[in-house]
Amino acid sequence: MSYRLPKHKESVDELEKDGRLNSPASLLRQFGFEYCHFQKSSNDMSALLLESAQEIVTPKNREGISRIFLYSGVEDEIETGSNSNVLDLFRYPVAELRHKLGLTTPNVLAVSQQGCSGMLSIIDMASRLLATSDTPNDSILCVGADTLPKWSKREIMYNLMSDAAASVIVSRDCSKNRIVHFHQEIQSYYWDTPQHENELLASYFPLAQRAIETAVAGAHLKMSDIKWLIPHNVSMRSWEILAKLLHIPMNRIWTENIARIGHTVSCDHFINLVEMEKEGLLKKGDNLALFTFGFGASWSCLILEH
User: What Cα–Cα distance (Å) separates residue 208 from each residue in 77, 161, 201, 275?
Assistant: First the structure.
């Protein structure tokens, strides 16, 4: 796993001064946020995505990569006018990534429209495909990248949003982070997010609790068996509420990146896992629960054994 963040970083106070927030900076700070990273002059994430993929695609594993899945939860904005070339609509980042990585054999596919749940979904898809493969060293490169438009504010429903890119290689017989189980609760009634904002806020906690508990049970585990709950980096307040519903202590939810980075749409879990491993917090055999909610609406939980 690897990730990249834009170099430009601003505090909630700077964002408030620039008119980039909906809520007061003081409120977002109470919710645990302090900084966010974003592309200041461009929406193009291709360079960050390429850097994150280059870190983990090595001479040793590149020949085994049979597919590349790209997920983006935020649709690209394409500026068009009366003199625009319609072919501009057919530039595909997943093909660009394959080309610049120098990979000549993988099939490529881009996926969207699952909000923050998409990276977990393509990893589940990769895992299921590999289970049917008869190639011993078969692997799939899963990448994600999201950037908010230049005109947008950096806050969505009381959450501070960063741009980010992340890359994950899913392979057969990997020595760590074994995929144990994936569960997703889908409520497509909420497809029109702006029209259902208050309802989404009300339904978030009971469905989050259900998704996590169902995933844990599907892995034949109990909540007490989960060493770490790896969060999506939404507000600290929301995690305090969910921890009480799940009857787990906050010290089993790794929340350090909420202040440092904020929420990145689909890359949070992999940023957090990389940083937790650097800090020596993950031990062989630890059961990990990766949970997120995505507009659309889906509540997703992936169980790993480190």
Answer: 31, 20, 11, 24
Contact residues for 151 (Cβ-Cβ < 8 A; gap 6+): none
Give the residue-averaged pLDDT of 164-192: 94
Segments of 202-305 assigned E as strands? 226-230, 287-294, 298-305
* Burial zone of 170 (CB within 10 Å; 0-12 exposed, 13-18 middle, 19+ buried): buried
CATH superfamily for domain 2-171: Thiolase/Chalcone synthase (3.40.47.10)
Q: Which residues contact 230 (CB under 8 A, 6 or more apart)?
A: 254, 269, 272, 273, 276, 288, 289, 290, 291
CATH level 3 topology of 178-305: Peroxisomal Thiolase; Chain A, domain 1 (3.40.47)
* Upper half-sphere CA count for residue 35 (Cβ side, 13 Å): 11
Tokens of 139: 């692997």
Total residues belonging to the chain = 306
Domain ranges of the chain: 2-171, 178-305
47-99: per-residue pLDDT in tens? 999 999 999 999 999 999 999 999 998 876 665 566 778 888 888 899 999 99
- Decide if 159 contacts 184 (C-beta within 8 A): no
The structure's pTM equals 0.94
